[in-house]
Design a protein that fits this description.
Cytochrome p450, about 425 residues, 6-stranded mixed beta sheet, alpha+beta
Amino acid sequence: MKKTLKIKSCPQVSDLKIDIDVNASTLNELTKLQHQYGNIFKINSNKDTSSYFINDPTLIKELLVKNHSNYRKGPGFERIKMLLGNGLIVSDGQTWRRARTMIQPTFARQNIHKLIQKMISCSKNRATAWDALIENKQSINITKEMSEFALELILKSIFGEDYENLIDENGENPFSFLSKDTTRNLSVVMKMRNLRQTLLSIITIRRKQENTEDYDFLTMYLNASDKLGNKFTDIELIDEIITLIVAGYETSAGTLNWAWYLLSTQPDELENLYQESQPIFEKLNDLNHEAINSMHFTQAVLEETLRLYPPVWLFSRRSTNDDQLGGYEIAVNSNLFVSPYILHRSKEFWDNPNRFNPGRFINRDGAKVVNMAYFPFSLGPRRCLGEYFSFLEMKIHLGYLISKYRIVDSQKNNPKLNLGINLRSSDDIFLQLERR
């Protein structure tokens, strides 16, 4: 006999108009309402559409994993689509499934390991820049430096030798506006669109070349084919490359910015990271993925940073069918909102949630809760493909540079949040460093 799930009553906020968007007022309002109404509540924002906010890990897992086929991308992705085109982050349905299947082999671990030397090289470039600043007794603009590191690495990982050609032809990095202009307004969209011809030129030349043994993401994308043997069209390929540039750069740049800040406030944790990194990075010529993956404390630092400052702090889904989540009825065309930022700082799931404590990811006390109430890279089929790449580059970056420099003076005030599509610091973070 089929078991009937009892329908639960969802708390409803019917007398309050909320325009949910990626801004500070939305975070403040949702935090306040979550304290008042609990971990699921309904907002009747207009006659035709119901909106739900979900902060329950079990319901979130149902939404993103078990019942994911009943949902597509929700409100807010229209603006992202203007910037990225119809790449993997934005696309839905069969278009997304085809692209995901074609791209996934690119991010296999054995392929990502081929980029380790590029990660080391980009970290060395930061050290060269920092030595000059220290010599002139200047502080380090960590926010700017993390942006330049992450952007250089993702571009070299995508284009390989063609990266140098980009610089030679244009006199500077044509994508540098991404790190210089942190807004994601129409002007940035237009600048990115203007680069589509540049990308097409690179793609056209690459298609005519014979395959080489050199590894980069563009080569993998060009060689990818679907189950019918069809490859990406030029337009599809440009959309996917732009998506990879923006997503691959912003996640790592933002996380490293916050990691340096948090470590500067906790000398003991910084010393622990140094003690782990120093013996590994003094043998730089022998560095390999096994050594990097043995950096468990550094991994914990990054996971704790992502708990406190998840790159995508608010995302949405829209139901394509009537559904039930944990017994709550969700009507078709409903909007559902989830905030990793709020979930990761909920006292119900985390002890002392606002404290930077990498140890919670070492000891794994309450590991079941940690695994359920933690999703900085999303969950289910749409979990970020670049997660391993991101962790590897960030561990190499922190391990190499913290083994060479100590922090002698740090940011005095807590940085405020820039709550756009990605979670950034509203002002640049500056640190005073010296060589060890």
